Amino acid sequence: MLEATDCMRRSAAVETHPDQQIGKYASHPGGKTNTCDRCPRLATFRAVNSKRYPTFHNAPVSSEGARSAGVWLVGLAPGMKGANRTGRPFFGDASGSLVRHLLAQTGIAYPGRCRLSNIVRCVPPENRPIPAEIAACAPFLAADCPDDSTLRAVLALGREAHMAVLRRFGKSPAVHPFRHGAMVDLSDNATLIASYHCSRRNLNIGRVTVADLEAVFATAAGMVGCGPRC
Ligand code: SF4
Q1: What residues are in contact with ligand 1 under a 6 Å CB criterion?
Q2: Half-sphere CA count of 29, side-chain side, radius 13 A
Q3: Rounded CA separation 170/128 (Å)
Q4: Which pLDDT score, from 0 to 100, does residue 34 have?
Q5: Domain 4-16+24-223, CATH among 3.40.30.10, 3.40.470.10, 3.80.10.10, 3.40.50.300
Q6: 33, 65, 111, 154: most buried by Cβ count inside 10 Å?
Q7: pTM for this structure?
C-alpha cells in the first residue's frame, strides 16, 4: 500500500511530460469557447484569474470520457492549478494525479470505461462552491451523465458530489446520508459509491487514506468487471 505522498509523487512523475507545462492546454477542445455566466461570482472569479494566470484554461471545464462509460467519476469542482489550468477534469494537480493513478491501478482508466465530471464546472474561490452554484450547474451535470444502458457505477468524491448525484437520479440526500463506502442503488443497473474527496487536505488530516480510496475504486472496478490486470 502506498502512502499518500508517495502515491501523489509517483502519479505526478508518470504524468509529467513536456505537454503538461502551463499553458499547453489553453486551447483544449472542451474549450475556451465553452463559456457560461449563470454564476456571477464564478464568472467574476474566472475573469480575475484570466488576468492573474493568462495561460490557464480559466473557463468551464467539460466532462471527459465516453458517453458509453460504465463508471462515472464525479468530483466537486476544478482545482485552481489542476483542471482550471489544464482544462481537463482531474488533471494537473496532486489530487488529480492520485485519481488518475487509482483509475489506472484498478483498470477503470481503460479507454471507454470511465467518464469524469465535476458537479460545478468553474473553479470556485477557496475550492468551495456555494449551494446556488451547485444548483445552477446541475443541468450540465445531468446532461453529462453516461448512458443509462452502460452505466454501472457512480463514484462520487465528497459529500457535495454524493448529494448532487442523488438529486440527479431523483433520490433524497436525507434518505441516503453521506458515509465513505456507502452504496445506493440509483437505477436497475447503476449503483452510487460514496467516497471522501481525495484532496490533499483530507489526506493530510487523515479523514481518508489512500487505502480507503483504493477500496472504493476497486469496488467501482468490480462493478464493470475489471481489476488491475484487465
Ligand atoms: S459553475 Fe456551471 S452554471 Fe456556474 S457559471 Fe460555471 S458552467 Fe455556468
Answers
A1: 36, 38-39, 42-43, 60, 120-122, 133, 136-137, 140
A2: 3
A3: 24
A4: 63
A5: 3.40.470.10
A6: 154
A7: 0.87
